[in-house]
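Async update (no meeting this week)

Hi team, since we skipped the sync, here's where things stand on the single-chain job. The sequence we agreed to prioritize is pasted below, unchanged from the tracker. I ran it this morning and attached the output directly underneath so nobody has to dig for it. Comments welcome in thread, and please keep replies under the output.
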Amino acid sequence: MDYFSNTGANAGSTLSTAPNKHDFDQLNIIYGHTTDSTTTVAASAPLQASGSDVDDNPNSWGQLVSQSRNGRSSTYEKFHGDGSKTVTHVFWTLEAAAICPSCDHRYDR
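Output:
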């Protein structure tokens, strides 16, 4: 963007404090690619469902792999038959963490 110093005699000026037509024209030149076949977006395979849903049921989260010292934060991993992995992060309430900071709170009762 084309900024200039808004100090001294220009201190009150609001010129060049927001994008202008020239700025947007330059972005279109850089990213528009309307006249060629070039793209700046990497090709990627479409995401496919693994066939194994993770939901509010704690048994769907997989194996506990880490937990914070105070018991407030847990991370679970579930591996799927297609080689993919789902990571579930749970932030527990103060009450759940107070029961046993080093326990897997899914089994607190």
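Quick observations from my side:
The mean pLDDT is 79.
The two ends are 59 Å apart (CA to CA).
Reply here if anything looks off.
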